Amino acid sequence: MGALPKRKVSRHQRGNRRQHLRLDAPTLVICPQCGNLMRAHRVCKDCGSYKGRQVLRREEETTNE
Known about the structure:
Layout: H1 11-17, E1 28-30, E2 37-39, E3 49-50, E4 53-54, H2 59-64
Antiparallel strand pairs: 1-2, 3-4
């Protein structure tokens, strides 16, 4: 036979073992260009800027041309 538990693991012990499995909310920062919330170290979805540079073109600008 394989390994078997000697006794029942309580809900508290089981929960303590699984503490690191929880989901965390993503960290949000304020975009310096437009002031909207964005994920850290990523391109802003609203204005398309990253580190003070314009990386992506906005949808509104392309439709007006």
